[in-house]
Structures are given as structure tokens and as C-alpha cells.
Specification:
Blueprint: H1 2-25, H2 33-60, H3 67-72, H4 79-84, H5 90-111, H6 117-141, H7 166-194, H8 199-230, H9 241-266, H10 270-292, H11 306-334, H12 345-377, H13 385-405, H14 419-439, H15 445-462, H16 475-500, E1 502-508, E2 513-516, E3 519-530, E4 534-545, E5 548-552, E6 555-560, E7 563-568, E8 570-574, E9 577-587, E10 590-599, H17 603-637
Antiparallel strand pairs: 1-10, 2-3, 3-4, 4-5, 4-6, 6-7, 8-9, 9-10
Helix pairs in contact: 1-2, 1-6, 2-5, 2-6, 5-6, 5-7, 6-7, 6-11, 7-8, 7-9, 7-10, 8-9, 8-17, 9-10, 9-12, 10-11, 12-13, 13-15, 14-15, 15-16, 16-17
């Protein structure tokens, strides 16, 4: 009955989405639209939660009479993978997508009490229309609760590469970011329909954009580290289409976040902000299409049924095409808003937006071009890291240079020189350049520039705090500073990885000693081990550096259901980098060992966490300010 309860909850939620759309669309109900739609949205969110909980329960219980469980689970799987495995497949991940979408609509109805009613009504209608399409997708093409009769004696298991604690964290975090952008999309649609684009809309939209951006950042950081240690290839970003699927909405959301701040604070960039809101969610839809349509072969691309891909593509064309048509119709009436000088904080943010948009276009073309060529000619092309690094890298460096100057400019017009404020950054950058030329003359140009700009960013990011009372500095400013500092640290980690990484591939016997970077590695032994649903050969390595010693145990695992071989890497982390070890195949009496020494590689993810933390502090600061302003307004009204 658990599966039937979940399916019934989905049908009821779909019916409520249709009712919510009707209530907000019928002109005669306009006066009561928000009051009627609000409880409907809350009930819809509750029902999707019930449906998702039912899916988790059938996975935890390994109910093999449910087709999805039989195809993606196994009784021998550890509990955490039976739990998280609920969304480690196509149908479950789409139900998670819909659940987050419905909860976002419920929170929009619950929290947006001070918005103009017409705009909120239109936004709730748009949110219901989005949800309705995805309910239809689940119920028609991708039912997660379909039964099997008779039920098999055992399930087929979960892809071993997904049997990792990262599965419990990475997809939900990423989906919160993806689908949270739907609210910004719906608010933009509502504002265009009511022709009410201004600071009120921006202040309503900003927390959703900021929250989505935080979760997208965390999801990408977690996914990057998961791929780094799980896939055993020693890298942290490969420009894989599935990786790009999450990067594209993040780039658009970053541009939107800066643009919506200008609209909220200065009333400018009205049409540009509306366009970015549409593009940001469109990129989420494109990412969903790429990952769930089956056109990609990846550990993430669960669906292989073209019918499902066609359904998602139809939804993508319907929603994005409809929003762009609405934008083209209403944009001339919206106007650009308040004007500003080119040399100003707004001017810097416009350039920031343009650079982010160009990088987004580069990633979009590099990701979709091979697919379009294959679809039209049958020829298979590959666009890999050389293209993305060569094109997006220089644009990224320009964006970082802008980050040094932009936060130091004044709003509307900046007339005084900023040379004195940027002097520390310039001096640090020059010193780094000289040091790298002397100490590492063979370093690649991009790595050298990355180190120079990253080091210059460190003092530049804290300059907005100079001359301020730190106790009175708004949390939003602290958030900006910490987020920009995180960017600088991540850039230093990426540049260090490119400049200083050392790799060694060796064939060794137990008892032999190897050297990589500052480490001496003693190959102690190799022995068989067994886990709950796998067996493995495990190498015992003793790594020493100075006075420190680390024990490392990389494994070559074999899963029987489904039959898969994986490499479980072993990593030693120190303050200045990571020693990364992989056990390969046996050749005679020797074993392949891949060793990497990666100085400061951890800065990549530490910086990413700081970026998200900065966003969270800014969000908390905005929430605190809004609450204080509401209290003052209420006291004034009394």
C-alpha cells in the first residue's frame, strides 16, 4: 500500500496544481486568487512530500514488487545506499525534482505576504504551470511507483559509482539550487504579466536567487570532490557535459544575483534582470534535459528511453519558449530603469554580467555542439578540456581582474581614482609574478596568471572593509567579502594544481619504495578484503614526509550486482596539499600504482565552501534587515 499511497498523493498534487493554475488565471476570481491559491500551494507541497517519503520507504524496505526498486536496489546494500538510492535513478531523481518544485511554490505562497497581490497571483500561477508539466511527466512517462508481478527474488543493485555517501548530499543540494531558480522564473513571469518590474520585485526575488546560488555552489563543490576521490582519475573537473549541466545555471545565477542587487538597490537593469531570471531557470531545464534524456552516457544519465527525453524537451520548449515570447512582448514596456555612469559599481556589475554571459555561452556551445552535430550528421565529435580551458580560461581571468576593482567603485558614478585602494593588490600580484618567474620558469602561462591574479585578489577582497566600523558593517557586506575571498582561494587552489602537481605511474612489488614530490612511499603488502556487497584487493602503503607518516590503503573493488570493477583511492591530506594514491591491475608479480602529489589542491573546495558561506551570511543579513524594517513599520503604524 505504500507505493499506491505515494501514487495517489502524486495524482492529488497534480489535481491541486491544475486547480491553482485555474484559480490564478480566471479573471473573475482575481480578488480572491492569492487567498485561494495559498492553501492549495501548501497542500500541494505536503502531498509531494508524502509521495517522496513513500518512495524512500519502499527503497529502505527493499520492496522488490516496485519495478524501480527491483531495477536499482539490492537486499545486501548498506542502509545509507538503500535510503539515498531512492533518488539515485531516473524516476526517483525526477520525483525529488518535483518535490523541491512544489515545496518552493508552497514557501513562495507562505512567505511572500508583502508582495503586490496581482504579481504574487501571477507568480503562483506560473509555478503551478511548471509543476503541472512535471507531474504529467511523472504520471505518464516516468511512474516511480509502478509494480512488478511477480516480484523478482533479488534486485539488480545500484551503480557502484553511486554507492558513496556523496549520493546522500550532492543530488538534493544541487536540486535545491536548480529548482529554487524556478521561483525567480515565476516571479519574473508574474512581473512581466503585471508590468510591475522594480525594486519591490527585486527584493522579493533576491532571497530565492541567493538561496539557489548557495545550494548550487555547495552542490557543485560536493560533486567536484566526489568525482575527485571516487572516479580515481586524479582530477577535479573534466568539463564533462553532466558537470557543465550544473555549471551553466550557476553562471547564470551568479549574473542574476549581481543584476538583481542593482535592481533592488538602484532600480536599474530591469529588462536585463528579467532576461537573466528566464535564462537561469532555462539552464536548469537544459541541465535536466541533458542528464535525464538519455542522450549522454554518464554515471549521472540514468534515462535511456527516448520518449522521456522527448517529453522533457517538449516541456523545455513550452516553458522557456513561452517565457521568452512573454519577455519579447512586455520588455519594451518595462524599460531599463535608473541610469548610471559607465565608471560606477553598476557599470562594473554590467561588465561582470556580460563576461559571465559570454562564459555561459562558451560552455553552452561546447556542451551542445557535439550533440547537435551527431543528431544531424551522425558524426561523433568531442569537445573537451582544451577548448573550454582555452576559451573560458582567459574570460575567467578578466572576470577576476574586474573583481579587484568593482567592489571599490561607488554607486551611480565614481569620480575619484581607485589606484591607492588597488595598490596592495597590484604590488602583491607583481611580487607573485616575479617570484614565479624566478622559482618556476617553466610554469604554464595560465597557471602563472592564475597564481598572480589569485594572490592579488586576497588583499583586494578585504579592501571594502577598510575605513569602516567592523561592528557596524552590514552582514551583506561581510558576505560579499567572504564570498570573494573564497573565489580567490579557489583560484589559488586551481592554479597550484595546474602548476605544481606531480604524477607517477609505477609497477611495484610489496617491499619496494617509491618517491613522489616530498613523499617516500613504502609498498608494504597487498591483501584481499570484503565488504557488505563487494570484494577487493587492498594495498598497504606507508607514506612518510619529514617527521610525519601516513598509512594509505587504496583498493581495487569488484561488485557482483551489477558486475563492476572500481578503484577506491586513498588520500593523505596535509596543510599544504594531498597525496593521492590509486591501486591498478596486476602485471606478473607487480602491481600498478598511480601516485599524485597535489600541493594546495584542497584550496579549491575550501574556497568553494567560503563562497557558499559568504552567500549564507549575506542571506542572513538581508533576512535580519527585512525583519527589523517590518517591525519598525508595524510600530510606526501603531
Amino acid at each position: 500500500m505504500i507505493a499506491e499511497t505515494g501514487l495517489a498523493a502524486l495524482y492529488l498534487a497534480a489535481a491541486l496544481a491544475l486547480l491553482q493554475l485555474a484559480v490564478t488565471a480566471i479573471p473573475t476570481l482575481a480578488d480572491k486568487a492569492v487567498a485561494t491559491a495559498r492553501p492549495i500551494a501548501l497542500a500541494q507541497g505536503l502531498l509531494t512530500c508524502i509521495a517522496f517519503l513513500c518512495l524512500v520507504l519502499v527503497f529502505v524496505r527493499t520492496d522488490l514488487s516496485v519495478a524501480l526498486v527491483a531495477a536499482n536496489s539490492h537486499s545486501a546494500k548498506p542502509f545509507i545506499y538503500r535510503f539515498a538510492g531512492a533518488w539515485g535513478n531516473h524516476e526517483g531523481s525526477m520525483l525529488l525534482w518535483v518535490t523541491v518544485l512544489a515545496l518552493s511554490g508552497a514557501l513562495l505562497a507562505l512567505l511572500s505576504r508583502r508582495m503586490p497581490e496581482k504579481m504574487l497571483s501571477a507568480a503562483l500561477g506560473a509555478q503551478a504551470a511548471l509543476a503541472l508539466g512535471f507531474y504529467a511527466f511523472l504520471l505518464i512517462a516516468s511512474n516511480p511507483f509502478a509494480r512488478l508481478d511477480p516480484a523478482p527474488l533479488e534486485g539488480q543493485g545500484l551503480n557502484p559509482l553511486l554507492q558513496d555517501p556523496g549520493l546522500a548530499f550532492h543530488p538534493p543540494t544541487l536540486y535545491l539550487g536548480y529548482v529554487g531558480l524556478s521561483v525567480a522564473f515565476s516571479l519574473a513571469v508574474g512581473a512581466l504579466l503585471t508590468r510591475d518590474v522594480g525594486p519591490v520585485l527585486a527584493r522579493a526575488m533576491r532571497p530565492w536567487v541567493l538561496g539557489s546560488w548557495i545550494f548550487l555552489t555547495l552542490g557543485i563543490v560536493a560533486g567536484s570532490y566526489w568525482a575527485y576521490y571516487e572516479l580515481g582519475w586524479g582530477g577535479w573537473w573534466f568539463w564533462d557535459p553532466v558537470e557543465n549541466a550544473s555549471l551553466m545555471p550557476w553562471l547564470a545565477a551568479t549574473a542574476l544575483l549581481h543584476s538583481v542587487s542593482v535592481l533592488a538597490a538602484r532600480g536599474g537593469l530591469r529588462t536585463w534582470t528579467m532576461m537573466l531570471a528566464v535564462i537561469a531557470f532555462s539552464m536548469s531545464m537544459v541541465g535536466t534535459f541533458l542528464v535525464r534524456s538519455g542522450i549522454l552516457t554518464s554515471v549521472h544519465a540514468f534515462a535511456v528511453d527516448p520518449t522521456r527525453g522527448t517529453f522533457i524537451l517538449a516541456l523545455l520548449l513550452l516553458y522557456v519558449g513561452g517565457a521568452l515570447a512573454l519577455f519579447a512582448w512586455r520588455a519594451p514596456a518595462v524599460g531599463e530603469g535608473a541610469r548610471f555612469a559607465l565608471v560606477s559599481r553598476e557599470g562594473a556589475l554590467v561588465v561582470n554580467n556580460l563576461l559571465l554571459s559570454v562564459i555561459l555561452a562558451v560552455v553552452f556551445l561546447g556542451t551542445l555542439y557535439p550533440l547537435m552535430v551527431e543528431a544531424t550528421t551522425g558524426e561523433k565529435l568531442s569537445v573537451g578540456p582544451p577548448y573550454f580551458n582555452a576559451v573560458a580560461g582567459p574570460l575567467g581571468l578578466l572576470l577576476l581582474l574586474l573583481l579587484i576593482v568593482g567592489p571599490l567603485l561607488r554607486w551611480r558614478r565614481h569620480e575619484t581614482p581607485v589606484a591607492r585602494k588597488t595598490a596592495p593588490a597590484v604590488l602583491v600580484g607583481l611580487a607573485t609574478l616575479v617570484a614565479t618567474v624566478i622559482l618556476a620558469p617553466d610554469m604554464s602561462l595560465m597557471a602563472r596568471l592564475g597564481l598572480v591574479v589569485g594572490m592579488a585578489l586576497l588583499p583586494a577582497t578585504v579592501m571594502p572593509l577598510f575605513g569602516r566600523s567592523l561592528r557596524r558593517t552590514p552582514l551583506a557586506t561581510w558576505g560579499m567579502v567572504i564570498a570573494h575571498l573564497g573565489v580567490a582561494i579557489s583560484v589559488l587552489g586551481m592554479a597550484s594544481d595546474a602548476a605544481f602537481t606531480r604524477e607517477r605511474l609505477a609497477a611495484a612489488r610489496p617491499g619496494e619504495r617509491l618517491e613522489i614530490g616530498p613523499w617516500l612511499i613504502d609498498f608494504v603488502s597487498i591483501s584481499p578484503v570484503a565488504g557488505p556487497n563487494w570484494t577487493a584487493l587492498e594495498a598497504s602503503l606507508r607514506a612518510s614526509k619529514g617527521d610525519g607518516t601516513e598509512e594509505l590503503r587504496p583498493q581495487a573493488r569488484v561488485f557482483t550486482s551489477p558486475l563492476t570493477e572500481t578503484s577506491e583511492v586513498a588520500i593523505a591530506t596535509t596543510w599544504n596539499g594531498q597525496l593521492y594514491t590509486v591501486l591498478g591491475r596486476q602485471t606478473g608479480d607487480r602491481w600498478q600504482l598511480r601516485l599524485w602529489w597535489k600541493p594546495f589542491v584542497t584550496f579549491i573546495w575550501l574556497g568553494g565552501i567560503l563562497v557558499a558561506l559568504g552567500g549564507f551570511i549575506a542571506l542572513a543579513g538581508r533576512a535580519w534587515t527585512n525583519r527589523r524594517n517590518r517591525r519598525r513599520l508595524e510600530e510606526a503604524e501603531l
